Amino acid sequence: DTEVTQTPKHLVMGMTNKKSLKCEQHMGHRAMYWYKQKAKKPPELMFVYSYEKLSINESVPSRFSPECPNSSLLNLHLHALQPEDSALYLCASSQEGQAETQYFGPGTRLLVL
Amino acid sequence: DQQVKQNSPSLSVQEGRISILNCDYTNSMFDYFLWYKKYPAEGPTFLISISSIKDKNEDGRFTVFLNKSAKHLSLHIVPSQPGDSAVYFCAASAGSGYQLIWGAGTKLIIKP
Question: Which of A72, A87, B83, B86 is the most exposed place for a label (fewest CB within 10 A)?
């Protein structure tokens, strides 16, 4: 099983809303990632969790708040987003310390109004 | 400074012919190179990778060639099929860690 699942597939939210994106993998990977991708651009790394601890935060604004409840789950809590935050949000997982083994989920298409 | 470059924003190829996508890099510390395929509004799908100790890796219709002296890799797709129409990203990693360095992508269009 090389599947990373993400919910919801689509999300529309206002700038005052609070919402959460969810990601799950059952490959036994101990590293999980959040990326943001704009159209026709490569993915931009936001956060990396290693063994359920935040390992990398690429200077992401605090309106994005990641959480890793256990080794299979990764959440991204959203609050007070801006229209420019509209993008495809991708979750990925990999073996620990092996970026070259990353598998991506299908993404959540987010629109901020 | 772009460490991974895909200089062709798009490429159009006839169905059944060979598609060749190119990628150049500048960092000699890269030890793994990957190709991902991406359809619109979907996550990237891993296609094929190559370790820096190899010069070729093949998987079905997909072959990746690595020329370390030229710091160049290429993805060959033979024969090209309509379902291959997508954006292809080249990515690289260096040592143990979490970062993938991405190219800008090449949009491949397969013409019937």
Answer: B83
Say whether A99 and B99 touch across the interface (CB within 8 A).
yes
Cis peptide leading into A8, omega within 30 of 0?
A: yes
pLDDT per residue of chain B (112 residues) written in tens, 0 to 9 = 689 999 999 999 999 999 999 999 999 999 999 999 999 878 899 999 999 999 999 999 999 999 999 999 999 999 999 999 999 999 999 987 888 999 999 999 999 9
Q: φ, ψ for residue A92 (rounded to 5)?
A: -140, 160
Burial class of residue A21 (count of CB atoms within 10 Å of its CB; 0-12, 13-18, 19+) = buried
Q: Which chain B residues are closer than 8 Å to A33 by Cβ?
A: 98
pLDDT of residue A1: 60
Residues of B contacting chain A (CB within 8 angstroms): 32, 34, 36, 41-46, 49, 87, 89, 91, 93, 96-100, 102-105, 107
Instruction: Determine if the peptide bond prior to B79 is cis (ω within 30°).
Output: yes
pLDDT tens-place string over residues A66-98: 999 999 999 999 999 999 999 999 999 999 888
* Chain A residues inside the 8 Å CB shell of B87: 40
Rounded CA separation B60/B54 (Å)? 18
B78, B110 contact by CB (below 8 A):
no
Q: Are B34 and B49 within 8 A, CB to CB?
A: yes
